[in-house]
Write a structure and sequence with these properties.
The complex is a heterodimer of chains A (about 260) and B (about 425).
Chain A (H helix, E strand, L loop, with lengths): L4 E7 L5 H6 L6 H7 E5 L12 E7 L5 H13 E7 L1 H5 L11 H5 L5 H5 L19 E3 L6 H13 L10 H7 L5 H5 L15 H4 L16 H11 L4 H8 L10 H4 L3
Parallel strand pairs in A: 1-2, 1-3, 3-4, 4-5
Chain B lengths: L1 E6 L9 E8 L2 E9 L6 H4 L8 H5 L7 H16 L5 H32 L4 H7 L1 H22 L8 E2 L2 E2 L5 H26 L11 E6 L10 E4 L4 E2 L4 H4 E4 L8 E4 L5 E2 L2 H7 L6 H9 L12 H21 L17 E9 L2 E9 L5 E7 L1 H16 L8 H15 L3 H4 L7
Parallel strand pairs in B: 6-11
Antiparallel strand pairs in B: 1-2, 2-3, 4-5, 6-7, 7-8, 9-10, 12-13, 13-14
Classes of the chains: A alpha/beta (about 260), B alpha+beta (about 425).
């Protein structure tokens, strides 16, 4: 064990759900304070300090020059840079925007240029790894708080965190759920989705929507074929399913792009 | 004399906002509550998405209030395709939203706002000084999160609420356990109301218009009619008739104004003011003891109203669990597409939330329109700052900045919500 861990929690373009999951460490909070020094966390504190940090949790994707500048500075200041949640890892739901022609989004504001000249936006939702090296991809929308604890514990012990990249199916079997895909022919994303949630959706009778992004070696094309041949989905349905939490990821981009 | 107040990144609120204020001889010359949180263009990319996934997508507008976003989207979509949910679903959705309000309110009260009044930079040194207080807060916050998890399958971005109902019925044992914990939590909630009645909240007053949902027989949270302290009475379908949006060049959030009027306030203060008689018995008693007499027009007292709503949320949740009718589950793909238009107004922790969708015959979104409470409050926050600043103009710039931040925090703004609130024309 080492001294107190210097931690930063930073928000880029996201929904704050990951920070909220961090704050959901309610039972662990007091003990956490003994081992962790929160140096930077604007949503939670007023006195925030510049680095260096042992761990920087970065929630959200990068969509403005200001955020890009901040990310590069964080990379310089942080020993371990954590892409905190799906937006940071894969762009998540807001990344659906990347498939929308820019003209449609500019219609959202009547006079886009008036704001744009003062507050720039790339109008693209890009994950952190597009710009800097990322040490840990903490997946999920949001990442379960136990996985946040795992990253903090690993930081204290000076080891790599153990995060699961096997499919949701493993957790689903451990819960002894009936397989929605093979027995009911429902379009479940479990076979290509990274575990970590505890297979919560199939456990409440709903297909996995893929909110932890692709598992390692995910075979998206094969699952897409099953969806069309055995679950009765159209090609458009399949594109929508993959163009959701991680459409631009290497594993999903072919199917999400409609190729 | 000129004073310049600049808060580059407002702390202890959700999202990325700033304050730019210029005061000349004690009078505010410039007051900007700017939002540099990047827009996420939800209304743009929702076009072409399936009606059964709209609530799942819009949940991701906000990690603090995913539940009201889901419920607003579900209700709007259900209206568009003509689905009426049963009483069981209606009550479970209420329970889930009260849980959401509980966790959000406790977060604001104890972790974001209270440190200002108790002399701390954040809840972290406060927890070291007064661990009992923060432990109490965290227990209440966890209870709110656990309600959402038991009903919705996950605390943040729940999974089991779908078009037409729930895919899962919470077990009796789990509901009974929640009820037991809710009963035990009453005392902490009463202490919360007492704490915020004793905190010396500034008495600054401004006669702004306040809007909330109202209901005939239950404390409104997921449905109701629009009513204001200025005499507005309208159905949720008429929301767009009365509320207009204007763009300002220093913020990604558009400002809402009333048709033919000015800015207005939404949130706990308008809700308690306009629904005082519908508060739970304990909450009403606590409000009386705290000296809360409607109609209160003091923006800092939103903190007291929020504390009253903490107790109200706990007691309403107990009532729902005790009287929950029987019901059954639905599948996420039970209902078939249909063309139509539907809109819904619900109460998010921070106030009114409006969702509207036009669907085509395949059930795909053709048009989406979302207005969030922080967007509605943005102009009113500025108006309040303008009125408040002359009363604190003899303080130095740092002290003034802190006071202005405290006023903003009383609104508990959720900036992530506010930046994709725009309609595609």
């Amino acid at each position: 064990m080492r001294g107190k861990l210097k931690v930063a929690v930073v928000k880029m373009t996201g929904c704050a759900g990951c920070q909220m999951e961090f704050l959901r460490l309610e039972e662990e909070f007091m003990e956490l304070l003994e081992n962790v020094e929160i140096e930077y966390f604007v949503m939670a504190k007023r006195d925030n300090h510049p680095g260096p940090y042992d761990i920087a949790f970065v929630e959200g994707s990068i969509s403005t020059p200001r955020e890009l500048e901040e990310l590069r500075e964080l990379r310089r200041q942080a020993k371990t840079l954590v892409a905190f949640g799906d937006c940071a890892c894969t762009g998540c739901i807001p990344s659906i925007l990347n498939w929308v022609p820019p003209i449609a989004s500019s219609r959202v504001y009547e006079d886009f240029t008036a704001i744009h000249s003062r507050k720039e936006s790339f109008q693209r939702i890009l994950p952190l790894s597009e710009f800097v090296d990322v040490d840990v991809h903490l997946r999920g929308c949001p990442p379960h708080k136990d996985t946040i604890l795992e990253v903090l514990k690993a930081g204290l012990l000076g080891v790599k965190p153990w995060l699961r990249l096997h499919p949701v199916c493993v957790e689903c079997k451990l819960k002894e759920n009936n397989c929605l895909l093979t027995s009911e022919h429902r379009p479940c994303m479990g076979p290509v989705t990274a575990a970590g949630c505890g297979a919560i959706c199939p456990s409440v009778g709903r297909v996995c929507e893929g909110c932890y992004g692709p598992m390692s070696d995910a075979n998206a094309e094969s699952l897409a074929k099953v969806f069309m041949e055995e679950c009765g989905l159209s090609k458009e349905d399949v594109v929508r399913k993959f163009r959701k939490y991680a459409g631009a990821s290497r594993a999903f981009i072919k199917v999400a792009g409609g190729v | 004399m000129e004073k310049n107040i600049r808060v580059d990144y407002i702390a202890r609120v959700e999202g990325q906002g700033e304050l730019i204020i210029k005061v000349v001889d004690g009078a505010p010359e410039t007051v900007q509550f700017g939002i540099f949180e990047p827009p996420k263009f939800f209304e743009a990319f929702l076009v072409g998405r399936d009606f059964r996934e709209v609530h799942e997508l819009t949940s991701r507008i906000c990690g603090i209030c995913p539940v009201p976003h889901q419920i607003a989207a579900l209700r709007a979509v259900e209206k568009a395709v003509g689905i009426e949910v049963d009483e069981y679903t209606r009550q479970l959705r209420r329970l889930m939203n009260f849980g959401s309000h509980l966790q959000s309110h406790v977060l604001n009260l104890y972790l974001l706002a209270a440190p200002d009044y108790l002399g701390f930079e954040s809840a972290i040194p406060l927890a070291r000084e007064n661990p009992q207080l923060i432990k109490k807060a965290l227990t209440l916050k966890k209870l709110g999160n656990d309600i959402v998890e038991v009903v919705g399958g996950r605390a943040i971005h729940p999974v089991s609420a779908v078009v037409g109902g729930f895919t899962h019925i919470p077990g009796k044992a789990k509901l009974e356990d929640l009820k037991k914990r809710l009963m035990e939590a009453r005392k902490s909630c009463e202490e919360t109301v007492q704490l915020f009645s004793e905190l010396n909240l500034p008495e600054y007053e401004r006669n702004e218009e306040q809007i909330a949902l109202t209901h005939r027989r239950e404390y409104p949270i997921n449905e109701g009619a629009l009513r204001s302290t200025g005499g507005l009475e309208a159905g949720e379908d008429e929301y767009r008739k009365y509320v207009k949006e204007v763009q300002v060049d220093y913020s990604w959030a558009k400002h809402s104004i009333l048709e033919g009027g000015g800015s207005f306030m939404v949130g706990p203060l308008p809700r308690v003011n306009l629904n005082y008689s519908l508060l739970s018995d304990g909450a009403k008693g606590a409000a009386e003891s705290a000296g809360f007499k409607p109609v209160v027009h003091k923006p800092f007292k939103a903190l007291l109203a929020r504390a009253i709503e903490v107790l109200n949320a706990v007691e309403q949740s107990i009532l729902i669990i005790e009287n929950l009718p029987k019901g059954k589950t639905v599948r996420e793909d039970t209902f078939k597409p249909k063309a139509g238009f539907g809109c819904a107004v619900v109460e998010a922790p921070r106030g009114l939330l409006y969702h509207a969708y036009r669907l085509n015959e395949k059930g795909l979104v053709e048009q989406a329109d979302i207005v969030t409470p922080t967007a509605m409050n943005a102009r009113n926050i500025e108006e309040d700052l303008k009125g408040y600043i002359p009363t604190i103009a003899d303080l130095n710039e740092d002290e003034m900045a802190l006071r202005c931040e405290m006023l903003v925090r009383a609104y508990d703004p959720c900036i992530s919500c506010s930046v994709h609130i725009q309609r595609i024309r």
